Structure formats: structure tokens, C-alpha cells
Amino acid sequence: MRRLTHAEATRLREVPGATAVLFLTDRCPVGCAHCSVGSLPRSPTIGDWPLFGRLVAGLAALPSLRAVAVTGGEPFAERRGLRRAVGELGDAGKAVVVFTSGSWARRVVPAWVREVLAGVGTVYLSTDTFHAARPGMGGAAFGRAADAVLAAGCRLVVQVLAEPGAGAGVRERWPDAEVSVVRPVRAGRGAGAFPAARAYRPLDAYGPCGLLTAPTVRYDGVVTACCDEAVIMGAGPAPLRARVREGAGLAAALAGFRADPVLRLMGGVGPVGLAGVVREEQRSVCGACWAGARRAAADPAARAALERRAAFTEAVSGP
At 267, phi and psi to the nearest 5? Predict the structure, then answer.
């Protein structure tokens, strides 16, 4: 069982094809006001179990894949699916990283949760003022969850929102834990919880997109080119997603994303690689990517030009 540190997980994500995200369920019992995917206790979850089994097997069979991040929704809200995914991916030699709210520790930690944690290498445990405001999700529940993660032998990374006092006291109580501070995500209910970026910026003001090295496989067979929450939930242009029914289709979808010229340029040099094809000022990296994907899908000449540009850029930058 490989227990990745936060730095190791970050470096691994920079290797194309080495990591993927398994979006296990839309369901979450917490219902935070800033949820970037809008999860609720009765949100959809796995319904087609044969399909889900094929998706997990497809991930396990990818030879270049070294780590899988399991997320949602709340992965522990999907007990059967989480058990299967952790078991099969671990047996295949993949490092398993689970993102959770710790909602399973509101009172006591169930035995089945401890069993699942024993097969997980790294746990990202979230906490912030939005989580703490929900019933039963205060400091005591977080403490039980953190203690259970460490007792299971997992690497613990406490993921905190960038807000005043973020992560205070974590290392004092859990010296072996790491702290990862993340920015607010303006998607899902988070779109109303955080102010939107309104200023347009030139293309060269943005760097390469780091989300494209983490393609996402949803439990329902939808595969997306990145782990952006808005794209996972269905926003953005069609070329950023595919629907698969088996492992071979999953491998083909991922290969198609890696070959796409817009995504190659976005991951290699960023929005500036789309200059002349999209508007010269954009509100975000995603805005440039979506505009480029739509233009390439609608204009064969533009796509051909981007193909040439991507090939040239890659030849100049080298392996």
C-alpha cells in the first residue's frame, strides 16, 4: 500500500497518464452551502452496477495509471461502491487516495469504515467553516475522523479552505498530518457562496492548466478530460466529455483526450497556445479552454491549425 504525501501526490499528477479521478457518487449527507458539485443526501448514486464494475476494472487495467483519487459527493456515502473500488484498485497496485468530509464520524466510526480505510493509502480530510456549520460536523467529529484515518495507517492530509485561521491547531494535535490549503471553487452551490471573477485578462496572464492531468471517470460512465467540477457536472463543450460502457472504451476516451490539440496546448503552454483562435482576453483558464474546444469542433481549419501548433510546441519543448 503506497501512502502518498501531499507533495508526492502533486508531483504524480504532473505526469500525464499517471493519475485519474473516480467520481464515485453525487450523494453527500452534509449539504454544505459551498459544495462545488451541489451534492445532497438524495443526489444520484450508482444504479448500474455491472457498468460500474467495468469502469473500475478498466481503471485497474490501465498500465500507466499509478494512483486513483476517489471523490464525489462523499465517497463513504456509497458503501458498496467504495469497498469495491478500494479493493480492486489496491489489488491492481494502484495508490488509492480518498477525499472525504469525515461525515462518517459524527458519533462513532463504524467498523466497515475502518476496514475500508485499511486499504487506502492517503486520505484528504476536509474541514472549514462551511463544514463545521452543518449539524454534527464540528470539531469532535473531525477529531474522530482524523484519529481513525491515522489509526488505520493512512497518510492524512487535512484539506482546508483558504480563509482566516485555516488549519490552525492541526499540526499541534496531529503532528504526522499535512495541511493543504485550497482556493474556493465557484461551481455548484459554491457559485453563489463566493464572488465571481469578473475581470477579463489577456491569454498570456494564465499558465498551463493543471487539471488536465487528472481525467475523471464518473460512476455513470461519463468520462471528462479534467477534474473541473463544472465539467464533471455537465457544463462546458461536448469535446471535454465522453460516455463509455466498458474498459476498452475508457482507454480509448482517455487516449482521445490526450490527442486533442486544444487540450494538449492548454496543458502544455496554457491559453496563450490558442491565440488567434479564441478571444484574446478571457475571464479564466476554463473560459479559454471551452472557447477553444468549441471553435475546434465547429471549424476544421482552426482545428488543423491547432494540431500543427500543438505538434510544433511539443517538438520544441521536448519530452
Answer: -80, -25
